[in-house]
């Protein structure tokens, strides 16, 4: 990213991190650019729930290598859709900590009275400690 170190208070991403080939680099860059006390608020389908996260596809020398049968999510600017590269589980918090050194919590929202109930309803919040 072109942001300076410690220059962003809040990063928000929505259903993106299951489509990147190098999530470690993404989490490191988010940690680098977050200001002390800043946070990354995001969603990504936690399809593996209590099972380990697994890499569905990788990029090797410019070629896509599928580790699982290819899966694509709808994408309004691509007829092919967006390739799923990671099938995240609840261990995503450990993955982020290893990649970035930051702690992440999973917030599960279930408030039927407000119309909030779905299969993949978790919101993740990564925080950079204040100095």
Provide structural commentary:
The protein has helices at residues 23-33, 92-100; strands spanning 8-14, 34-43, 54-55, 57-60, 63-66, 72-75, 78-83, 86-87, 103-108, 122-127. The mean pLDDT is 96. A hairpin with a 2-residue loop joins strand 6 and strand 7. Helix 1 (23-33) crosses helix 2. The chain has one domain: Vaccinia Virus protein VP39 (Rossmann fold, 3-Layer(aba) Sandwich). The strands form four sheets. The protein has a four-stranded mixed sheet, with helices on one face. It has 131 residues and is of the alpha+beta class.
Chart the SSEs and their pairings.
Blueprint (H helix, E strand, L loop, with lengths): L7 E7 L8 H11 E10 L10 E2 L1 E4 L2 E4 L5 E4 L2 E6 L2 E2 L4 H9 L2 E6 L13 E6 L4
Parallel strand pairs: 1-2
Antiparallel strand pairs: 2-10, 3-8, 4-5, 6-7, 9-10
Short overview:
By secondary structure, the protein is an alpha+beta fold. The protein has helices at residues 23-33, 92-100, and strands at residues 8-14, 34-43, 54-55, 57-60, 63-66, 72-75, 78-83, 86-87, 103-108, 122-127. It has a single domain (8-127), classed as Vaccinia Virus protein VP39 (Rossmann fold).
């Amino acid at each position: 990213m072109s942001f300076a170190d410690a220059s962003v208070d809040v990063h928000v991403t929505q259903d993106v991190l299951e489509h990147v080939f190098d999530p470690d680099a993404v989490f490191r860059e988010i940690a680098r650019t977050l200001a002390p006390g800043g946070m990354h608020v995001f969603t990504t389908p936690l399809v593996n729930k209590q099972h380990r996260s697994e890499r569905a596809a990788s990029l090797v020398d410019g070629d896509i290598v599928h580790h699982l049968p290819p899966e694509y999510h709808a994408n309004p600017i691509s007829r092919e859709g967006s390739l799923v590269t990671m099938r995240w589980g609840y261990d995503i918090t450990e993955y982020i900590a290893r990649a970035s050194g930051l702690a992440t919590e999973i917030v599960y929202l279930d408030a039927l009275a407000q119309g909030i109930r779905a299969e993949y309803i978790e919101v993740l919040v990564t925080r950079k400690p204040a100095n």
